[in-house]
Amino acid sequence: MKIIVYQIKSKATISNDEKEENNEKIIKVNTYVTYDLEVKDARVTPMIAEKDEEREMSVIVTNSGDVTMNSEVSGKIYDGAGNVVENLGNKDVEDLAPGESLTLTWEWETDDYGTFWFEAKVIDDNDEVPENDIIDSMMRSVDVEFSDDMESGVNGWTNYKSLSNPWHLIDTDEDSNREASSPTHAMWVGDESKGDGEYDNNWDFSVYTSEEITLGQTNPQMSVDIWYSTEFSWDGGNVQITMTTGRLGK
Prior knowledge:
mainly beta
């Protein structure tokens, strides 16, 4: 926290004034201000990608202090051992007023497999709140054997109970009450006619891939983006994998 001192000066102008020594008054005012840039909501798009696929790293910078700031924010990529594998450089933050925000972006690609972290850091000696100066986001570089963002329809998926399965494709441009991880589309199980889109009692429905997926990696992993709102302690969901050995994994 820094102190800025202002002087308030008042002067009386009176004709035929016989006591000029008391015509002027000066008051000093101490103002306490904070210099603080905050970084938040670091993202990597796509978070899971194949080697040599370009990614975009982004972070939101907010002036949480009391004065307009000119600063820099650095971007770096770390490996799982904490080593810097790429210095993405610094981005300028110019004339950011208190309460204002902006988004900074970097681009990066790698020809290596593994887990990496994108880190954004405020570079400013005047910043007084170090607790919000650093943020990171994880990413993985893999061989992608199967991926579907539902933007091209329900190709590759089929119903478990095809006669009365409420799983269906939604478009967030047409229905703002729904959620999607991809730009606008997702598979959703619910009933729009109920107003809030809730599900009915005793629902038990699934969707599954219509064809087998061959995995070429030694230790394959799966990632699914799911948004849900269920009744606490009663309802839920799961993801299941059936392998050629016949075992079922959850």
